[in-house]
Amino acid sequence: MLKLDNIKTYYGNIQALKGISLEVKKGEIICLIGANGAGKSTTLMSISGIEPPRSGSIFLEGIDITGMPAHQIVTMGLSQVPEGRRIFPQLSVLENLDMGAYLRRDKEEQKRDLEYVFDLFPILSQRRNQSGGTLSGGEQQMLAISRALMAKPRILLMDEPSLGLAPIIVQQIFGIITRINKEQGTTIFLVEQNANQALKIADRGYVLQNGMIVKSDTSSALMADEEVKNAYLGV
Amino acid sequence: MKYFLQLVLAGLTKGSIYALIALGYTMVYGIIKLINFAHGEIYMIGAFTALIVGGALQITTGLSPLTILAISLAAAIFFSSGYGVTMEKIAYKPLRNAPRLTALISAIGMSLILQNYVLLAQTSDFLPFRSMIPNFPFLTPGKSLVTTTQLVILITTVVVMVILTLLIKFTRTGKAMRATSQDKVMAQLVGIDINKVITFTFAVGSATAAIGGVLIANHTGQINFYIGFLAGIKAFVAAVLGGIGSIPGAVLGSLVLGMTESFGAGYISSAYEDVFAFIILILILIFKPSGLLGRNEIEKV
Ligand SMILES: Nc1ncnc2c1ncn2[C@@H]1O[C@H](COP(=O)(O)OP(=O)(O)OP(=O)(O)O)[C@@H](O)[C@H]1O
Ligand SMILES: [Mg+2]
Asked: Residue A64 belongs to a domain with what CATH number?
């Protein structure tokens, strides 16, 4: 589904990614864990075309998307729920969802998908005419996920969806991620510092350190790994 | 009383023209945070296009004045938008990630280039502009409170505002413009081609400025290469007054400025007409830098 081959991404002269290779297969939930500044967000932004890598290649369903403009990558079935949610603050909840479906022309199906996300997060339906900036953090995260779903992605990148949320909301969000994966067959590439929770729902995981992948294994193996336990699981 | 009402109408007329220009400033600022200093020149080019196209049609054809007006207005919109879009491509797009001051200097350069280009191509003298707007039969020149061109300016401005508001509020492109102005990265992540949105914004802003240019030329009956400079600065003041980035703010700021100038000139001294804009600018920058309807800029962390 998604394949990164030795990508190197820079901010000016600073190298953030030092040759990352990884693979996400169709239908999987894959988790990328790493400390602050490891390069997790940069990895997702490179895939989405916002921070294109200086070298290496990115393949989406076998097609080389390296260097493709960001808006075009969305048309290929890849969406991102970015770090910090990035809700359009002065657009209403409904307009934010409309923007998620920006590239779609199928009005009828959009209505059905709108019902689907309102079913996932009923609170959004109540808030539909409220401007995005006035939502609580948890509601904004729900909206960010819903907005991405409105594009009907085949693969969804999520950057720390649990950041700053109360444990009960985190539970709910992770439950929904699993549900999206099962019900819609959406492949999920999840970035998390909250490694405990993330590894529980993921099939496999990668560990990122200083812009390099230092470990990759099944979730259960990673959860049993002493180094991972000490560094990321807080036990 | 009549004098007072005439001043009100003159103020509204001026304010309408400022509003047609200020819209472009504020929309462009909203999208790319650039003070497009050359925007007044786009308005001036609109007036000159109408002068050239309209003049040629008046001499060579027997078309009715309204047909000529329609054709020259369309030509003015077309050319001004072309200039606006081209300007963005060559002078601003390459500087999109540069410091804001760099782009501002580029904008001032664009302004000087366009002024001097028209100066060389035409002349520095005022050129007479024969009005293409036939007098409304129900208005008697000298007797009625309002003149035909004033009425046309007011109505046109209202129509343009309504169309623009609907466009921005309800259309897909309008929503994309708002999304782009709020978060460019996120806009791309939902699939918006932000270059197209920026181009469109310049085209629309230039079109409304061109309409203003054609109307003012019909109203005052003369134009030269410099009219865009002063009008541009004043429209900029109006946009700041209303809260730059805010479309209703631009309209409100323009009307307040137009009124202030009209009453200032009418009751204090017409010699100071052009000073009021700058007094307003200084006051607003001291007391409410975010403008009448502007949001206080929330610092993003
Ligand atoms: N816009 C930028 N300009 C310069 N350097 C940047 C920029 N964005 C990120 N970096 C640097 O790149 C490195 C990786 O950052 P990145 O945001 O990808 O880390 P992260 O793993 O997502 O961290 P966090 O968990 O804090 O979100 C860091 O050293 C960071 O300082
Ligand atoms: Mg990050």
From this structure: 3.40.50.300
How do strand A204-209 and strand A29-34 relate by DSSP bridges? parallel
Looking at ligand 1, which residue's alpha carbon is closest to its atom 26? A36
pLDDT in tens, A88-138: 999 999 999 999 999 999 999 999 999 999 999 999 999 999 999 999 999
State the virtual CA torsion across A71, B168, B110, B129 in degrees, nearest 10: 140
Mean pLDDT highest for which of A181-185, A220-224, B78-82, B264-268? B78-82
- Identify residue A197 by its one-letter amino acid code: Q
Strands A204-209 and A212-218, bridge-based pairing: antiparallel
The reply to whether B288 touches chain A by the CB within 8 Å rule is no
Interface pTM, i.e. ipTM: 0.94
Pocket test for ligand 1, best of A13, A33, A41 (most atoms within 8 A of CB): A41
Question: Chain A closest CA to B224's CA: distance in Å?
Answer: 41
Mapping DSSP to helix (H, G, I), strand (E, B) and coil, where does residue A156 land?
A: strand
Q: Give buried/exposed letters for A207-220 (b at 16+ CB in 10 A, else e).
A: bbeebebeebeebe
Domain that holds residue A17: 1-76+189-235
CA of B267 to the centre of ligand 1 (A): 61
Domain count, chain A: 1
